[in-house]
Amino acid sequence: MDLFDALAQKSSDGMPLAARMRPAALDDLLGQEHILAPGKPFRREIEADALRSMVLWGPPGCGKTTLARVIARVTQAEFEPFHAATSGVPEIRKLIAKAEERRKYHQRRTILFIDEIHRFNKAQQDVLLPHVEEGTVILIGATTENPSFELTAPLLSRARVIVLRPLEPRHIRMLLARALTADAGLHALNPDIEDEVLDRIVEIADGDARTALNLLESTVLMAPVEDDRHVVRTEHFAEVLKRHAIPHDRRGDNHYQLISALIKSVRGSDPDAAIYWLARLLEAGEDARFVARRLVISASEDVGNADPMALTVADAAAHAVEYVGLPEAQIALAQATAYLASAPKSNAAYSALLRARQVVREQPLYPVPLHLRNAVTALQRELGYAEGYQYAHDADDGYLPQEHLPPELTDRRFYEPKDIGAEADIRARLDDWRRRRASERKPTKR
Predict the structure, then answer these.
(1) pLDDT band at residue 311, thresholds of 50, 70 and 90?
(2) How far apart are CA 89 and CA 83, in angstroms?
(3) What is the pLDDT of residues 36-70, one digit of tens each?
(4) Which residues of 303-313 are buried (b: 16+ CB within 10 A; e: fewer)?
(5) Pair 116, 142: CB distance under 8 Å
(6) 398 CB-contact burial (10 Å; exposed 0-12 / middle 13-18 / buried 19+)
């Protein structure tokens, strides 16, 4: 008998524990107090049956589907579940037709619950628009991805976004306690489970109720039976949990939030935090080349000339990812991450580019000064191309004061080095060169 056979035999209807423990009333829901506590506007809206279409955005296992089902029960609306990954426009049209008939002949509203609504393409989302706008259905979409990126603007304008949060550890612990004692839960198995195991399940679940209940169910079912009790000890739990799979979607919101945390920790000169976020990304199976590319960008954008070696280190790590591959290349990524986070920071070069691009876009495209032009043909030389150009290497110190900007932009400064790291030396050198150039400049006739 395998685990699934045991589950089917020991539960009354073969349903997973997470499904059997799904709450049926608002007061039974755990977490989401920020929107569901008594007196909160959203809860009052549900209880007054004054619902509008919405998108529930939150991480896996936070209760999006459960909340939608409870709303349908409280409001006495018909609940029509729909999964965006497995159904398409024909099925939507059938559900809409049923909703129209229900509304016309029975004066009953329909909640159209679309799980993973972010999987709908633009055309599929557009099919919903008129029916949402006319109130044929109350749309409740559920998504783990940022609706701002995944849903069209017209649909978002007709359905507000309700943000759900991961469950807190105390909520997960309460949920486990319910499951161990409820008739619909594991009470019939007479479980005897150590607190250390429950603590570990809470930790691993990381706010995901479904993960917590699945782990609990597997652990209890696989535990040895002593005196008609399923006895769960830490060593038994270790057999269930060989390795915790960290949830991560390379295209999803979690992907962008983790890499954002890494780069902002590097920029904020916090190597401990940067290494932590790097570990999170690597453990989740993130593409090492993607991480390496972002570190190379950060080396120029955030460290810049305050430590010119930063770009070399980041580029070497990126090369190591291609040449060595994982798992060894993660050592190079860790070295580069620690180096960048510990380096002095300057965005002066990047800021200089932004300022120069703004001038290019907003002002006339001034001609290249004649002395900077390349004189290849006799005609170009006759026209004065390259005339007066001074070859910098002819000077003992490699610098000859001459103008390189168009006359209209003389004295315009784009690159302003900071007094940080190697850029402090660059700043002093540029200040000297600018003074020498200004002193050699011919006065303008008036």
Answers:
(1) very high
(2) 12
(3) 999 999 999 999 988 899 999 988 889 999 999 99
(4) bbbbbbebbeb
(5) yes
(6) exposed
Nearest to 61 by CA among 18, 16, 117: 18
pLDDT at position 243 over 70: no
Region 144-152: mean pLDDT is 86
**Which residue matches tokens 């030389």?**
381
Residue 276: C-alpha distances to residues 127, 284, 313 (Å):
44, 12, 19
Separation CA 416–CA 410 (nearest Å): 15
Helix (H, G, I), strand (E, B) or coil at 226: strand
pLDDT digits (tens, 9 = 90+) for 232-241: 887 767 766 6
Residue type at position 83 = H
Q: Is residue 13 over pLDDT 70?
A: no
- Summarize pLDDT for 149-177 with one digit per residue, the tens: 888 899 999 999 999 998 999 999 999 99
Q: Give the pLDDT score at 255.
A: 66
CA quadruple 412, 414, 415, 416: dihedral sign: positive
HSE toward the beta carbon, residue 84, CA cutoff 13 A: 23
Query: Can you read off the two tokens belonging to residue 37?
Result: 């506590």
The CA–CA distances, whole Å, from 54 to 42, 63, 127, 164, 440 equal 11, 15, 16, 12, 68
- Length of the chain measured in residues: 446
Cα atoms found within 13 Å of the Cα of residue 316, Cβ hemisphere only? 13
Strands, E, within 354-401: which ranges? none
Single-letter code of the amino acid located at 357: R
Please tell me the distance from the alpha carbon of residue 108 to that of residue 200, in angstroms, as a whole number.
46
pLDDT of 3 higher than 50:
no
Strand-pair partners of 161: 55
3-class secondary-structure state, position 162: strand
97: nearest Cα among 110, 88, 116: 110
Q: Which amino acid is at 34?
A: H
7: which residues sit within 8 A by CB, 6+ positions away?
14, 16, 217, 221
Phi/psi of residue 191, nearest 5 degrees: -75, 145
Quick check: 145 and 115 in contact, CB under 8 A? no
